[in-house]
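Chapter review. Work through the record for Mutator-like transposase domain-containing protein before attempting the end-of-chapter questions.
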Amino acid sequence: MCKSCGCSSSSMTSYISQNDYDINTRLVYFMRCIGKGKCAARTLCAVMNLPPPPKNFERLNNSLCQALSSVCSKSMLKAVEGTVSRNGTARDTTVALDGTWQNRSIWCYLGHIIGYW
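C-alpha cells for Mutator-like transposase domain-containing protein:
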C-alpha cells in the first residue's frame, strides 16, 4: 500500500478459475504435454526461480485428464460419424493414425497403426 495516497496494487496476473489459479493449471497442462510430472515441475520451478508447484498438482492433473479424455472421445466420435456418413453408412473404414498415408514411400520405423471402425 502506498503511504502517500493509500492505493494498493497487486502483481498477480493469473486469473482464478474454479478456485484454482490459471497459472497452476497451465503448469500442470504444460508438464502433461511434455510427458513429465510433479517432480519435473518442482525442478523447473526451482531452476526458473519460481515458487514450487501447487500442492494440489495431482488433483489438477486428474481434472485435466478427465477434461482431455472427454474432448478426445467427443472428437473421435464426431470424426467416425463424419467418415461413416461420407462412406454411405459403411463402417469398414481404414484409418492411419501415424501419418503414413501422407508419405507412402517412406518406411516408418515406429510401426504402422491401422484401425477399423
